[in-house]
Amino acid sequence: MKKIAIFLTISTFVFADVNGKDVFETYCWGCHHQTAVAFGPPFEQIASKRDANQIRAMITDPKTVSKVFGYKRNAMPAFKLKEDELQAITRYILSYKPKDTNQTKVK
User: Fold this and answer.
1) How many degrees, rounded to 5, is the angle at CA 60 between CA 54 and CA 61?
2) Phi, psi for 102 (deg, rounded to 5)
3) Closest Cα to residue 24, out of 81, 97, 73, 99?
4) pLDDT at 90
């Protein structure tokens, strides 16, 4: 019985879904906001310009990625997030991608 309880506790911890909003509030809130300009660009703007791989790269290696994007300077620090945190924050940022209201239906 004790082994089952330990397994359930460990599996709950290992498979717990990380919330992107929690990651945002922990690491990003000081410089970014979801839809308003702060020190850094809003997630809405980031999501409209970048794909998941670019977002992940900017979080983990902003110095290099900034150069690739042609920015003259970068104030963002590199974050060493766990894989589940990185996935969660990437999904969260992309959830702010504006819906394309100008799309026309093809008949």
Assistant:
1) 80
2) -95, 0
3) 81
4) 97
Identify the CATH class of 16-94: mainly alpha
Q: Of how many residues is the chain composed?
A: 107
- The structure's pTM equals 0.74
The Cα 3–Cα 55 span in angstroms is: 41
Are 44 and 34 in contact by the 8 Å Cβ rule? The answer is: yes
Domain residue extents for the chain: 16-94
Residue 10 dihedral angles phi and psi, to the nearest 5°: -65, -45
Using pLDDT thresholds of 50, 70 and 90, give the confidence band for residue 21.
very high
What pLDDT, in 10s, does the model give residues 55-99? Answer: 999 999 999 999 999 999 888 999 999 999 999 999 999 999 988
Neighbouring C-alpha atoms within 13 Å toward the C-beta of 52: 8
Q: CA 33 → CA 4, 21, 66, 67, 68, distances in Å?
A: 43, 11, 20, 23, 24
